[in-house]
Amino acid sequence: MKYLALFFTFTTFALAAKLPANQEKCAPGNSNCLLKVANEIISKGKTGYAEIGLPVLDPLRIEKLNIEQGGESPVNLKIYLKNVDMSGLSDVKFNKIEGFSANYDKEKTEFRFRYPVLNIYGPYKMEGRVLVLPVQGNGIMNLTMYDNDIVYKVQTKKVVKNGKDYIQIDKSKLDFVTPSLTVHFGNLFNGNKELGETTNRFFNENWKDILKEIKPAISESIAAVYQALINNVLSNIPQEELFAV
């Protein structure tokens, strides 16, 4: 069983009547154009793109992220993150986008992209068991994944606001593959240095086995981040202004 609670801090943007005049538009379903524009827009995340509701992505502040992984799994953990920063989002490279056609209500769209580096840093509280090792800590977590290949699948829906149609993601699902992961949990076992070093070494030496068990919970949490980001942008742009005529 896993439980996820996720909260974001976004700057509030006024609803935009249209895309900026210099922003390229794509015909519905034009995968090559969508790929080009998506990569151009995400690169602006280093400083934000206020006109369309894209916040500064590096870092992206996440106020609260709770993950519970348990049941029959050999990894039984409760991890509570608060005011953590996620970095690396603006360095995403999209390599495939299929969907976003004119039939956007209940449409399925797939994104494929890669992160060179994705880092999550900030306060954590953790308790539970990993394989045969009991764990407990309350401090600063630093987790980094490298060369992440992501498949993100969404289903969109139509939302009507003030007489205009908008596209929103209704459901989303994510899978990822990473060849390398490092993690450090500060202040494990109330600051016991020997136990803390042993436990961090155990996490890093056995990260593949641990990730295999906790991956569904991580995937769900990251999918929620993407869904909130994309919906924040799409809620600022009426469907009629989103695509080229």
From TrEMBL:
Q: Name one GO biological process term.
A: circadian rhythm
Q: Which domain of life is it from?
A: Eukaryota
CC terms in the record's Gene Ontology section: extracellular space
Q: Does the keyword Cytoplasm apply?
A: no
In terms of Gene3D superfamilies, this protein maps to: Haemolymph juvenile hormone binding protein
Keyword check for Signal, yes or no: yes
| Signal peptide start-end | 1-16
Any Pfam family: JHBP
Keywords attached to this Swiss-Prot or TrEMBL record, sorted alphabetically, are: Biological rhythms, Signal
Q: Which family does it belong to?
A: Belongs to the TO family.
Q: Which PANTHER family match?
A: PROTEIN TAKEOUT, PROTEIN TAKEOUT-LIKE PROTEIN
- The name this protein carries in UniProt is CLUMA_CG003020, isoform A
Q: Which organism is it from?
A: Clunio marinus
Q: Gene encoding this chain?
A: similar to Protein takeout
